[in-house]
Amino acid sequence: MVTVSLNSAIDHTLDCPGFTAGAVNRVVSETRTAGGKAINVAAFLSGGASPVTATGFLGRDNAQVFEALFRERGIQDRCMRLPGSSRVNIKVVDRAGGAVTDLNLPGLRVPDGAMELLTEKVEGLADDNGCFVLAGSLPAGVPEDAYATLTARLRARGALVAVDTSGAPLRHAVAARPDFVKPNAHELSELLGRPLPDRAEVVRAARELHATGIALVVVSLGADGAIFVAREGVLLAVPPRVEVASTVGAGDAMVSGVLAARLAGSDLETCARRATAFAAGKLARVGPVAPPPERVEELMRGVAIHSLGSA
């Protein structure tokens, strides 16, 4: 398993009860964790049956946070170091009010030639790895079709490719027919260029995307669960109620659950249960920490599955 992170981030989470803009606020605790969608997926899947490799770009000036995560989780580090710092995302969490305020700082500008070198590195990793996750936004200096290019080259080598991004990078990527995509409802609406005012419209849109040749389409609906569309049919998976410490990384946990289930040969219902349980279990934790297996099994039993017909 290889995760490709082109715009890695450090998530700086501040626990600030009663946060009020324009006022003096008191932070009671803080955490700094290596993040970005692909880094989170690598962290969630580390320690599993298959080894995990992380590649992509890291800023040399603050790479230590990522290196510490890789050492702790046993993730093979094949990331390229670039001059400067990886971006920092500040999350101000008011648990009492149930609100999270995001302050996203600018990140790296990728120099000329670096993306070509990374593409060669990723293709080389396909010699020994059969599954790739391309996830997250794109930094300055990387073309909008970067994920599409990587998808086409990796699929030509017989690899399974999962993509989790949004906007123009997603639009280009779906044209290259990855095996699995996971937009949320807003991202799917943006992709198709029309509003999706209710669940029926979201399901119709997910079916359309699947019909273009993408084997598995998962549309996350936040607390309302997720829609899973594959050859086996269309399912709605609704999670049980859980305590929420942080929503950061819940979508990445869902991607991880999908891949863990699919690579184990699970059917669509088991995949939907495991992915939804992974995401629900992560909500109780800050940072890319997967829930323990016994908690995943407990949550899987609490996931409600509704059949919505054929694909």
From TrEMBL:
<feature type="domain" description="Carbohydrate kinase PfkB">
    <location>
        <begin position="9"/>
        <end position="293"/>
    </location>
</feature>
<dbReference type="GO" id="GO:0005524">
    <property type="term" value="F:ATP binding"/>
</dbReference>
<dbReference type="GO" id="GO:0044281">
    <property type="term" value="P:small molecule metabolic process"/>
</dbReference>
<dbReference type="Pfam" id="PF00294">
    <property type="entry name" value="PfkB"/>
</dbReference>
<comment type="similarity">
    <text>Belongs to the carbohydrate kinase PfkB family.</text>
</comment>
<dbReference type="GO" id="GO:0016052">
    <property type="term" value="P:carbohydrate catabolic process"/>
</dbReference>
<dbReference type="GO" id="GO:0005829">
    <property type="term" value="C:cytosol"/>
</dbReference>
<comment type="function">
    <text>Catalyzes the ATP-dependent phosphorylation of fructose-l-phosphate to fructose-l,6-bisphosphate.</text>
</comment>
<dbReference type="GO" id="GO:0008662">
    <property type="term" value="F:1-phosphofructokinase activity"/>
</dbReference>
<keyword id="KW-0808">Transferase</keyword>
<dbReference type="InterPro" id="IPR022463">
    <property type="entry name" value="1-PFruKinase"/>
</dbReference>
<protein>
    <recommendedName>
        <fullName>1-phosphofructokinase</fullName>
        <ecNumber>2.7.1.56</ecNumber>
    </recommendedName>
</protein>
<keyword id="KW-0418">Kinase</keyword>
<dbReference type="InterPro" id="IPR029056">
    <property type="entry name" value="Ribokinase-like"/>
</dbReference>
<keyword id="KW-0067">ATP-binding</keyword>
<dbReference type="InterPro" id="IPR011611">
    <property type="entry name" value="PfkB_dom"/>
</dbReference>
<dbReference type="InterPro" id="IPR017583">
    <property type="entry name" value="Tagatose/fructose_Pkinase"/>
</dbReference>
<dbReference type="InterPro" id="IPR002173">
    <property type="entry name" value="Carboh/pur_kinase_PfkB_CS"/>
</dbReference>
<keyword id="KW-0547">Nucleotide-binding</keyword>
